[in-house]
Automatic annotation (TrEMBL):
It holds the Pfam family YkuD. This is L,D-transpeptidase family protein. It comes from Marinobacter iranensis. InterPro entries: LD_TPept_cat_dom (IPR005490), Transpep_catalytic_dom (IPR038063). Pathway: Cell wall biogenesis; peptidoglycan biosynthesis. The active site is at H144 (proton donor/acceptor), C166 (nucleophile).
């Protein structure tokens, strides 16, 4: 508003005023009033006070990953999915994130992405479905952070579906998930 008053008093026309207002908004987003990105939308608090995570729930349409302790949400994260996110994964290369009940069964601290936790896809049903089509169900579906070495371009991945079927979070969020979720934890992935 202050910019508008200054432009009107100085006799500057409407078009430059709109451009200047736009630039002021962009400037404030990058250098001032924008809120910093945070790892979790729920406050972390002391790790000692965090209840044990009993299940991971992924709601694909919401692009959310929830850490649950019983029925209580412990943490909530915005996620990126496969490039072709709708529907259940049918075969290797379809770039879909699977749907169903699986186990987080092992982890890799040195993957091509910032840490990764493996999802036990494919299960027997997934194998049978792919086999009926004469296809390979694929595998190596993980929860992971950003590609290693992404550096200053990390912001470009946040909020986008960019994986080959995995579930992606920021590196800071992956640190939380890595710490809070034990191997053997069930994961339920729903549409």
């Amino acid at each position: 508003m202050l910019l508008k008053i200054l432009f009107l008093q100085s006799g500057i026309t409407r078009a430059p005023m709109v451009v200047a207002s736009f630039l002021a908004i962009i400037f404030s987003l990058f250098f001032g009033t924008a809120q910093p990105l945070v790892a979790s939308e729920l406050p972390m608090g002391a790790m000692d006070e965090t209840p044990e995570v009993s299940e991971v729930l992924v709601r694909k349409e919401e692009r959310r990953l929830y850490l649950l302790s019983g029925d209580q949400v412990v943490r909530s994260y915005r996620i990126g999915l496969g490039d072709n996110p709708s529907g259940h994964k049918l075969y290797e290369g379809d770039e879909r994130t699977p749907e169903g009940e699986y186990i987080l069964d092992w982890r890799n601290p040195n993957s091509d992405f910032y840490k990764s936790i493996h999802i036990s896809y494919p299960n027997n049903q997934d194998r049978e479905l792919a086999s009926a089509w004469g296809l390979d169900p694929g595998g190596s579906i993980m929860i992971h952070g950003l590609p290693t070495g992404v550096g200053d371009m990390a912001f470009a991945y946040l909020g986008l579906d960019w994986t080959d079927g995995c579930i992606a979070v920021s590196n800071e969020e992956m640190d939380e998930i890595w710490q809070l979720v034990a191997d053997g934890t069930p994961i339920r992935i729903v549409p």
